[in-house]
Amino acid sequence: MTRPDTTQARLHTAEKARKDNDMKRSGWMARGSRIGLTSAGILVAATGAALAHGADGGVAVAVEGAPSWSLSPVYHILVAHFPVGLWMTAYLFILIRSFSDSKFAVRVQNAIWPVAALGTLVGFVTYGLGLTIYPWSAITESPLGRNHIMLATWTLSYWTVMSVLGYRFRRHLFEGAQRWITFTLATIGAIVITITGTLGGSLTGTPSLVTKSLSWIGWNVYMTFYLPTWMLAVYVAGALLLIAIGIIGWKRRV
Amino acid sequence: MTLRTTYLAASVAIFSGLLVLGWVTHGTGIVKDDPERNIVIPDELTSELQVKAAYDGEKIWFRYRWPVDRPSIFNDVLVYQDGKWETRGGEALGPNPDFLTEDRVAMMIDDGSVPLFGRYGGYITIGDGLTTFTGVPETEEERTKYLPSTRTDPNDFEALKPESDLEMLRAAGQFIDLWQWRSSRSNPIGLGDDGFVAEERGGDAGTGPYTTNWDSATEQPLYMFDPDVAGSAALSIDAVTGGDVGFNDIYYLSADTALPFDPTLAWKNGDTIPRRYLRPATGSRGDVVEPSVARWRNGFWDVTLVRDMDTGNPLDDKIFRDGGSYDLAFAVFRNASTMRWHYVTLPVSLGLEQPAQMVAERIESGTEPDWTQPWTEIKTFYPGQVTWGRLTDARQHPGADRIAQRVPVAVRHTEEQLALYGVQMEFAEEIRRQWIWTLIASLGLIVGLGINVNLLMRRNEEEV
């Protein structure tokens, strides 16, 4: 026999849950609209700024071998600051969380993967924009161009890995000794971003102190970064070894 | 710490270790001397040149100073060996180990008539397929530098414009004045050498300061040392290559030091005679002279050249005028190297009492410069094999559009950078291929790390 008060209570609870969901949904929608509008505003402003900076003056000249279509570098330069900013913010949050268990640090931890993932998303856009600036044959003739592509590829792939890791493991990234693994991986990621950024600056003719510092520690950025053939084999072996260790550890579940 | 975390830590250590190993070993295995392809990389890619200039309204002086560890005062020589005279030295791939390639300084001058010279200097004169470039077959005639405007196709050495067009260009000032000083073939008798770069690099009208000391009919030298002046009819090859012959010895052949060759003398193996006979230059080619013979001291050549500001040969020489502005570019040949194994400079502006990177000082008419003004320090660099055709082609050079916009090279590149680029250009294909493999292998490593950490990271709830 059904007890009316229980049924009533259930109906009331269901109704309350539905209302809560509706409120939540409308809250999300409102928030989504705000984010969308803000993003659209930023995009329009950025496009305007890019167009303003990309305006050519003087006399137009024909260039031998110039592609029929290319995008002004200003778009890549402008957009590139977003992934750099987002990834470095993610790194800052990881840094805070690695060294602190405070409420603030725990709260900040929740933002790590969305910020990193957003950075990766814009990173792909930036990478694509970068590839439209010069013909592939030309940019890969330039040592600095090659280096920028190399480091950009590393950065993008590395932070894709970091984003997936952040999404899958979230708070667990900072459990026990894993927090130091996370901290180390993120630090490598931050270094790679810094080098990529400074190479981009050097490409536009504004080398920074980082550019010079790299030569002090063994890499003149005007020399193409390439590995000797034996080292390529070591890298391939290293990649296979890492996968093998991963599978063994995962199978043992220890 | 669980075993899985230990695996994770080990994986991150392996990954970091591979990054460090990659950092330490990068850039090795490709760039090395390859004489088969005419590739010899100098030990030093950059150096220094100091220059001063002065003028008195009639004459203009340039003083050059550059470092050389060991001066090379010989060029090609004839060495007696088993009854025959053999040629040694002169042209060589890279530094001549026997120091039988002379030291040299060259200065290109323009008055603004040659398009882009003031922005790109000597780069504009480097066409495709010049002598000693990799893959260029040896030809009877030397394929020298030239101005792009002298060709119907600027990148084709053979596409020379008709003579009438070349004359028109010359009359319009489209040529570069080229002064040279040679430690063996001009310095001993106090001369420079006056030439040009237009449809080719050549000497001005007249005769140069040297001729070849060789009789091809008899296969013997034409001249030998005067024993009364030099102490013997020949030098010893060991003394010559060992650096035992110096400025205080008679080491060159000229009217004052030579006699006609005497084949009846008792020549012995190793006897050495310069393959060049020095003589006064004539005509327009003899315009550039030294106030006094230059000497190498304390690790530096110190050379001064002087010329009339107006030589009266406007089709051969750039005429200097008081208050004028000019563009210069220098080349220094050191460590017994010649041809393209030289150190060049970016263009330098010269003002005759006008604001410029280098200001020529006005001195009183009829006096000599006291050289109290400071040196203009100019960085020199090894240029490698970079052609103008490549630089202006957007498919090969990302900065081709900047050149089209006439952005000076110095705005975008430093001398160190250009030297490194020049070297890498000599191995362009090999480096690009290795770079692509590096890109793929390193991407594989990151993917490997990604799979690894995603498999090994653990959530606390997995423990139970």
TrEMBL record, chain A:
Signal peptide from the UniProt entry: none
Region named Disordered: 1-25
Record's compositionally biased regions (Polar residues): 1-10
Alphabetical keyword list: Membrane, Transmembrane, Transmembrane helix
Regions annotated as coiled coil: none
The keyword rRNA-binding is annotated on this UniProt entry: no
Start-end of Basic and acidic residues biased regions: 12-25
Protein name: Uncharacterized protein
UniProtKB/TrEMBL annotation, chain B:
Top-level taxon in the UniProt lineage: Bacteria
UniProt KW Metal-binding keyword: yes
Regions crossing the membrane: 435-457
A Pfam family it matches: EB_dh
Keyword terms of this UniProt record: Electron transport, Heme, Iron, Membrane, Metal-binding, Transmembrane, Transmembrane helix, Transport
Residues annotated as domain Cytochrome c-552/DMSO reductase-like haem-binding: 9-345
SMART domains per the UniProt record, alphabetical: EB_dh
Any one GO molecular function term: metal ion binding
Keyword check for Disulfide bond: no
Cleavable signal peptide: none
Protein name: Ethylbenzene dehydrogenase
Species: Jannaschia helgolandensis
UniProt lineage: Bacteria, Pseudomonadati, Pseudomonadota, Alphaproteobacteria, Rhodobacterales
